[in-house]
Amino acid sequence: MSTSRKLSLPLILGVLAACQAPSGALRVGPILPASNGGVVSVEPLASVIGARVLADGGSAVDAAVATAFALAVTWPEAGNLGGGGFMLVRPARGAAAFIDYRETAPLRAQPEMFLGEGGAVDPAGVRLGFLPVGVPGTVAGLFLAHQEYGRLPWSELVLPAARLAEQGFEVGAPLAASMARHAKELSLCDQAARVFLDGEGRPLQAGERLRQPDLARSLRLIAEQGPAAFYRGEIAERIVADSDRRGGILAREDFERYRAVLRKPLEGEYRGVKILAGPPPTSGGAVLIESLNQLESFDLSALEAGSAEELHLLVEAQRRSFLDRALSLGDPEFVSNPLDRLLDKRYAAELARGIDLERATSSDQLAGDLDGTLPHAESEQTTHFSVVDRDGNAVANTYTLEESWGAKTMAAGTGILLNNEMHDFNVTPGVSDRKGRIGTEPNRIRPGKRMLSSMCPVILTRQGRLLLVAGSPGGRTIPSTVLRVVTGVIDHDLPLRDAVALPRVHHGLYPDVVSVEAGVPERAVAGLLDRGHELRAIASQGDCHAIGLNPETGQLQAVADRRISGGAAAPR
Ligand code: DON
Question: In 3D, which of 523, 473, 516 has the Cα closest to residue 315?
Answer without folding.
Answer: 516
